[in-house]
Specification:
Layout: H1 3-13, H2 19-39, H3 46-80, H4 83-87, H5 93-124, H6 130-155, H7 159-177, H8 186-197, H9 210-234
Helix pairs in contact: 1-5, 2-3, 2-5, 3-5, 3-6, 3-7, 3-8, 5-6, 5-9, 6-7, 6-8, 6-9, 8-9
Length: 240
């Protein structure tokens, strides 16, 4: 990683209008949690809180935040040509892409995983493991999505469309219909982590083992960064 690229990445990420969508997602989740808590009769049980965090947190907030952060930091720099500045520096392409991925990962944790923890506290307080499970599940899912979206952002010309299609078709539709696909789904990995850690029984057994979910996310992140670095290394200034 490179500290200068990290600083430039932060400045680029928070200097664009898309950041407001990234900020809006956790706010919406927290507001909805507050409404659910206020309108529920009596205390909300662990099962209901877990279901909300899995469906809305891992299913929507995490991928949207990761998608916005990745496409803003990587895709936008390809579009406006600012990536050329980095490509002319004596820094390896893998260092460039890994530094940007770390910024995206940090944004995902701050704007998705941590708000999931807070949402868990809003829904049921700190009396169960659901909030902690949501934090860990959010981190695992974010790690996987960052790796996947990073490689899509560097290999596809219409990367925003590609990331959206991956999320809507593969993650939201196919993985819900075909059980074997859960072994290759960032959403299923995060959901499984929540189900394993939370005390609530939920609406079924976890789709994959806890260790597999964690390792799968790490592999997806490492493979995505490596492939994206290789793609960046094969590019020339004229191609940009």
């Amino acid at each position: 990683m490179n500290s200068a690229i990290l600083r430039l990445g932060l400045r680029s990420l928070f200097g664009r209008a898309r950041v407001w969508l990234m900020i809006a997602m956790p706010v919406i989740m927290l507001v909805l949690a507050g409404v659910i808590r206020a309108t529920s009769r009596g205390d909300l049980d662990d099962v209901g809180a877990e279901a909300f965090l899995r469906v809305f947190g891992v299913g929507i907030v995490v991928p949207v935040v990761a998608l916005v952060a990745t496409t803003t930091l990587i895709n936008s720099e390809f579009d406006d040509g600012s990536i050329i500045y980095l490509l002319t520096k004596p820094v390896s392409r893998l260092t460039i892409i890994s530094s940007k991925a770390v910024v995206v990962l940090g944004a995902g944790i701050v704007f998705a995983a941590v708000p999931m923890l807070l949402t868990g506290f809003v829904l049921i307080g700190g009396t169960s493991q659901v909030a902690i499970a949501a934090l860990v599940g959010g981190v695992v899912s974010t790690v996987a999505y960052v790796g996947i979206f990073t490689v899509l952002a560097t290999t596809m010309k219409r990367s925003i469309v590609g990331c959206l299609l991956f999320w809507l078709l593969w993650e939201s539709t196919i993985s819900s219909l075909l059980s074997p696909v859960k072994w290759l789904s960032a959403r299923a990995w995060g959901t499984a982590v929540i189900q394993h850690i939370a005390t609530a029984s939920g609406d079924g057994r976890p789709g994959v083992p806890l260790l597999y979910a964690v390792l799968g996310a790490i592999v997806a992140f490492a493979a995505g960064i490596t492939l994206a670095g290789q793609r960046l290394a094969s590019m020339t200034i004229s191609e940009e």
